[in-house]
Amino acid sequence: MAALALLLTVDFILTHRPHHVRMREAVGWSIFYLALPLVFGVWVWVAHGSGVAVEFYTGYMVEKSLSVDNLFVFMLLLSSFAVPDALAQRVLLLGIIGALALRAVFIALGAAVLQSGTWAFLLFGAVLIAAAGKIVKDSMAGHGQEVDISSMRTVRLLRRVMPVTDDYRGSHLVVREGGRRALTPLALAVVAVFATDIVFAVDSVPAVYGVTQDPFLVFATNAFALLGLRALYFVLMDVLTRLRHLNHGLGAILAFIGIKLILHWAHGIWTWVPEIPTLLSLGVIIAILATVTITSVAANRRDAEPAEPPGQPVRR
Fold first, then answer.
1. Can you tell me whether residue 206 is helix, strand or coil?
2. What is the full per-residue pLDDT of the chain (316 aa) written as tens digits?
3. Are residues 7 and 33 in contact, defined by beta-carbon separation less than 8 angstroms?
4. All structural domains of the chain with their residue ranges
C-alpha cells in the first residue's frame, strides 16, 4: 500500500502542471508501468512459488485486457466533455484514484461472498457469462461504446446540487463564482470517469476472482492494470480505434472465465467434473487476445485495399 501511495503521489505531482503529453513521455511511463507487474510477479514466484505467480500473471492479463476496453469509453467521455488535451491526464489520474478505492470495496465484498459458500462461484460465473453475451451483442449491433452524458445520474445530480461553470478553469475542480462555489466541467468529467468504472468493476472483479481467490492478488492485479492506464491512454489513442474485434475477444475471455468458475463450483459437488488449470487459462487468454489483434489488423488492411474499377475483368 505504501508503494501504491508513492506511485500515485508521483503521478499527482507530474500532472499538477497541465501540459500536452508527448508520445515519448507516454511511451516511457507505459513501459515503466508494464515492467512493474513483471517484477512483482518475479517476487511472488520467489516468495510464494510458481503456482501463485502464474495466478497473478493470469489475473493481470485478464484485468489489463479489460482495462484497455475502459480506454475506449474514457476517450468518448473526454471527447463528450471537450476536455482540453493539457487536462486529460489530470482527469484520468483522479478517475483512476477513485476507481482504485472503489475496486478495494468491491474486492472486499467479493471475498466476503466467496467465504459464504461455493454457490458464489456459480453466481460469479453466471454474471460473467451474461456480461460476455451483452458485450458481444452490443458489438454486433454497433453500439457497444456509446456514452450518453445526459443520461448519467451522477452528472445530473451534481448539476442539480451545485452550479457548473461554462468553461474550464485550469486544473480547478471547484471555483468561487458570483459569491458561491461552482463546479467546473473538469469535476463533471472526473465524476463521469469514476462512475463509469463502477460498471467495469462489476465485470472485472469477478473475472479476476475466477483466476485466484486471494484478495491481495486480486487487488494487486487491479492496481497494476489501472496505474498504467493514464500513460497507455495517450499511446493507444489511435491504435484503439483500429482494434475492431477487441470487444469480441473480451466477451470470449469473460465467457471462458465464467465457465471456469462454474466448473470450479461443480467440482466441489461432483469431483468427476474437471477444473480448468490456471496455466491453461493464461494460454487461452493470450491466444484470444492474439487472435482478435490479428483479425482486426487483417480486417483493417482489407478495408484499406482499393476496390477494382468497374468494368475490369475479374482475375482468377
1. helix
2. 666 777 767 666 665 666 666 777 778 888 888 898 899 999 999 999 988 999 999 989 888 877 776 776 777 777 777 777 777 777 877 777 877 888 888 888 888 887 777 777 888 788 878 878 877 777 666 555 555 555 566 666 777 777 777 778 777 788 887 778 888 888 888 887 777 777 677 777 888 888 888 888 888 888 888 887 777 777 776 666 677 787 788 788 888 888 888 888 887 788 888 888 878 888 888 888 889 888 888 887 887 776 555 555 555 4
3. no
4. 2-302
Please state, in angstroms and rounded to a whole number, the distance separating the CA atoms of residues 47 and 272.
33
Is the entire prediction scored with pTM above 0.85? Answer: no
For CA atoms 234, 151, 190, 165, the dihedral sign is: positive
d(CA 175, CA 163): 10
Strands (E), 170-251: 174-177, 180-183
Phi, psi of 307 (to 5 degrees): -70, 150
Signed CA dihedral, 174, 179, 180, 184: sign only: negative
Three cell numbers at 153? 445520474
38-46 LR contacts (CB < 8 Å, sep 24+): 40/220, 40/224, 44/217
